[in-house]
Amino acid sequence: MFLPMFLVLAVLLMIACWQDFYDYRIKNNLIVTGTVLGIALNTFLFAEMGFLDSLIGLGFGLLLLLPFYLLRIMGAGDAKLLAMIGVFVGQNDILWVFLYTLVAGGLLALVFSLWRGKLRRMIDNVILLCLPVLSTSKSECFKDNSSFSAEASQSAGKLPYAIAITAGTGFFLAMKHFQ
After folding, report:
1. Cα–Cα distance between 80 and 32 in angstroms, integer?
2. 154 Cβ contact partners less than 8 Å away, ≥ 6 residues apart
3. C-alpha closest to that of 35 among 3, 81, 93, 1
4. pLDDT tens, position by position, 84-94
5. Gap between the terminal Cα atoms of the chain
6. Euclidean distance between CA atoms 94 and 172, whole angstroms
7. Is 171 within 8 Å of 101 (Cβ atoms)?
């Protein structure tokens, strides 16, 4: 990725983090502007990837977070933001950005739950999420979990996931281009 492309993406991601942190929303005009800029830069100025690779990166980026949105784990803005990043990094790298984003999201969730004093609730939720997988039957799973609070299935709070997406993207790009 050329330095001008990196700088444009960095500015867009910083704006997305700002919006998400303060409003828990990423505005569509930012996503549309970034998508158009990324496609234009890749198509006309830096033909490193080109138009088709940008569009495929857009589609893959959207598809990777779409299940999380459909399950109401994340907002639509997060999925659209990863799609916008796919325009910049292309089809070959968007999966790596996604994987680094998941790691950054886990760390961010830990930090935010500590900051808000809800670490125990988050740990209970993770355990309850994993119990059906570890148990042989669902009835066994919930029979003897009296050690968990009744509120354990409640959310530990909202998370501005644009920060994790930005961190994952930045870490991936740094690993790829500055070795």
Report:
1. 9
2. 121, 125
3. 81
4. 999 999 999 99
5. 14
6. 10
7. no
CA max distance for the chain: 62
**Closest C-alpha to 96, from 10, 178, 2, 174:** 174
8 Å CB contact between 64 and 95: yes
Sign of the C-alpha dihedral, residues 93, 99, 102, 103?
A: negative
- Rounded CA-CA distance 125/82 in Å is 26
Q: Measured between alpha carbons, how far is residue 170 from residues 38, 43, 111, 124, 138 in Å?
A: 16, 23, 19, 31, 40
What's the CA gap between 58 and 39, in Å, rounded? 9
| CA distance linking residue 23 with residue 33, whole number of Å | 19
The tokens for 51 are 């138009």
- Amino acid letter, 11: V
The first and second tokens of residue 56, run together, are 């495929």
The series of mean pLDDT values per 10 residues for the chain, 179 residues long, is 86 97 96 96 81 95 94 92 96 96 92 79 71 56 48 63 96 88
